[in-house]
Amino acid sequence: MNSSALSRRAVLAGLAAAAFAGRAAAAAPWPSRSVRIIVPFAPGGGADSSARVLADLFAPGLGQGVIVENKPGAGSVIGVTAAAQARDGHTLLMASNSMLINASLNPQAGYDPVRDFDAIGMVSAQPLVLVVPAGSEAKSLKDLIALAKRKPGMAAGNSGNGSLAHLTSEIFAGQAGVQITPVAYKGESALLPEMISGLVDFGFLNLPSVAPHIQSGRLRALAVSSPQPAAELPGVPTLRSLGYPALEVQGWAALLAPRDTIPADGLAKLETLLGQALASDTVKSRFAAQNVAPFVMSRQATARFLQDETARYAAVIRERGIKVG
User: Fold this and answer.
1) Whose CA is closest to 167, among 112, 109, 246, 240?
2) Which residues pair with 293 in a beta bridge?
3) Which one of 30, 192, 219, 246 is separated from 134 by 20 to 30 angstroms, measured CA to CA?
């Protein structure tokens, strides 16, 4: 056999070997190594706690370790961008409302919340609570609106410029036809003392943060933003039931993957494991301790939900002239 024939045979053998290796790699089960969940917030918060309980429950079903990696900063932009750019095929993201809001506030955020991620499912939800100081004249939503019309520019406290609380107060102002003065704080822990003291007139705050102060009588709850009344706040109506469906706003967490990095069977496996976890007593008890509820939604429904939420926040930001910074 001449050298040319040997060369052709070697090339064909090499191509066959490469094709076999490609088929073997394609057929390899997912995951082939440990999986990480990026949490774009500091340790200890609700998203972090949720990710850690899911990691513990996912590991046996995946047959691999699941680690949680915190990447806080820039209102979640740093962690979300890191997740969007991860191409290792074993990275997930614990996303929240802020991911969508930041993308509308800052076109240079570095990611597109819809285009750059595959949905796996929703994880949890918690309502915002419309609260006023205990000494406020407002005993109801109707009272608050009447008071805001008599006193234009009432201070609406929020946990940061562009936060969900900020956007919700802007939706409220537009729906109620009142003028408000948004007052941004560095988180709810900084806002609460001034709300309790009466320096802030009202605000939409997360249920876990305000529940103890409502129960102690230092704050008064006028309404909740969830579809159903909150069991922790008996007798407090929903904003929808009071005629304000546009104020049905919840803080939520969702599990996502960077687009086209996890095979379809892997995404399906994660969706199944997430559904099983959210139905477990472990998750129910852990979430209840945080005053959040499991939020069960299919991959397809989650993708539509995120698209709708993105459009909703973008419209509020545009119509109310909210700027970054």
Assistant:
1) 246
2) 125
3) 246
Token code pair at residue 144: 């608050």
Distance from the first to the final alpha carbon of the chain: 75
pLDDT tens by residue, 303-324: 999 999 999 999 999 999 998 7
Residues 314 and 302: their CA atoms lie apart, in Å, by: 18
Q: Please give the structure tokens belonging to residue 168.
A: 């919700």
Distance CA 155, CA 201 (A): 5
The helix or strand, by DSSP H or E, that contains position 121, with its residue range, turns out to be strand 117-133
Surface-to-core class of residue 249, CB atoms within 10 Å of its CB (0-12 exposed, 13-18 middle, 19+ buried): buried
Residue whose C-alpha is closest to residue 217's, from 142, 133, 140: 133
Note the pLDDT tens digit of each residue in 114-166: 999 999 999 999 999 999 999 999 999 999 999 999 999 999 999 988 899 99
H or E element at residue 85: helix 77-85
Say which residues have a Cβ less than 8 Å from residue 297's Cβ, sequence separation at least 6.
121, 122, 305
Instruction: Enter the DSSP assignment of 75.
Output: G
Distances, alpha carbon 325 to alpha carbons 163, 195, 200, 203, 279, in Å: 11, 22, 21, 20, 40
Q: What's the length of the chain?
A: 325
Name the helix (H) or strand (E) containing 257. Answer: strand 250-258
